[in-house]
Amino acid sequence: MISIRQILEELPSLNREERRELSLRLLEMDSTPEEAADLAVCEHSAALGFAMLDELEAEAQTP
Q1: I need a labelling partner for 43 at 20 to 30 A (CA). Which of 2, 18, 21, 33 fits?
Q2: What domain of life does the UniProt record list for this protein's source (predicted)?
């Protein structure tokens, strides 16, 4: 079994996407069904917003 200390030691080696997924999983585990539904809506909205920002950033870098 993995200890909490081992988990904490591994966190810095995770990339941003992996840390985000881990955070979402932890929130889901402690959420009521209603909170989980709200979280899913917020996650979807955030994903759309980040995709838009990524597109704008890519356009700005294009010569």
Answers
A1: 2
A2: Bacteria
Q: For residue range 14-61, what is the model confidence (pLDDT) as tens digits?
A: 998 899 889 888 888 888 988 888 888 988 998 899 999 999 999 999
Separation of alpha carbons 23 and 48, rounded Å: 18
Both structure tokens of 32 = 């009521």
Question: What is the rounded distance in angstroms from the CA atom of residue 54 to the CA atom of residue 46?
Answer: 12
Half-sphere exposure of 25 (CA within 13 A, CB side): 6
**The token pair that represents 20 in the structure block:** 């985000």
Spatial distance between the Cα atoms of 11 and 57, rounded to a whole number of angstroms: 28
Amino acid at 47: A
